[in-house]
Amino acid sequence: MLLTLSTIPTVPKPFLKWAGGKSQLxxxxxxxxxxxxxNGSIKRYIEPFxxxxxxxxxxxxxxDIQELFISDINAELVIAYKTIQYNVNxxxxxxxxxxxxxxxxxxxxxxxxxxxxxxxxxxxxxHINLDNYHFEWIERTAQLIFLNKTCFxxxxxVNSKGDFNVPAxxxxxxxxxxxxxxxxxxxxxxxTQIYYGDFTECEKFVNEKTFVYFDPPYRxxxxxxxxxxxxxxxxxxxEQLKLRDYFKKLDNKGALIxxxxxxxxxxxxxxxFFENAYAGYQIERVRATRNINSNALKRNSINELLIxxx
Length: 310
Prior knowledge:
By secondary structure, the chain is of the alpha/beta class. It has one domain: 3-Layer(aba) Sandwich (Rossmann fold). It contains nine helices and seven strands, in the order ααβαβααααββαβαββ. It has a seven-stranded mixed β-sheet, sandwiched between helices. Helix 3 (54-62) links the parallel strand 1 (44-47) and strand 2.
């Protein structure tokens, strides 16, 4: 039997590595959450760009929220979250089998197995039905977790065709999954509504007792950091401004809203994109160390933005 939320001893951790993940920033971000979250007057939490879910897991575990809504335009993420919600035990069983097999191989065999799994994962994508949960989702989620934890730099990246295209990483004994953490994640998800779609899909759930957290693909801060390929759909400046307009729309509905993004002033002190886009809103900066750059020497501590309507 799974634990209840009140008896889960620790905050569930993200089960995937994700570029821009918020695990390292949770304590900083917590300092900027609205007072209404602390005093219990927030009854609904919505996160439309769920990604690895670090902020979601933290809030769902720590605060008394009656209704939880998460969504993403990345279909693989939605499949994974729903699979853990519906059938975590069978997922753990398949992951155990994959992990045992992978760890028994030498370096050459590990690489070969990775590419076989990646080919199978990509070839089966067009046969997956997103509308109805199916047993095939369990194997697909296991493949996704395996590829994510054994690929180069722990990235999730797809090409214009939607194929996962990250090469194999060189790991001797990677930590592919944590069964106890997956069970804790599953328990959180029992009280969560999960949707597939872009960020505008959440409007029908928003009211004045809602806290919305937006964590979109970050605006690139340099020509060499243009990583927005979490799905086939680009997230350029036009999309950033579309999100800004939506932020204002939900603000007018009375929701409390926080948004994370890159700080262009890390590279160009005169880049006022977000100051101009979110004029009149509160903008704060937090420090983050990002490890996505392939050059380890360029994995520096940088500022990231928190934008709030409160």
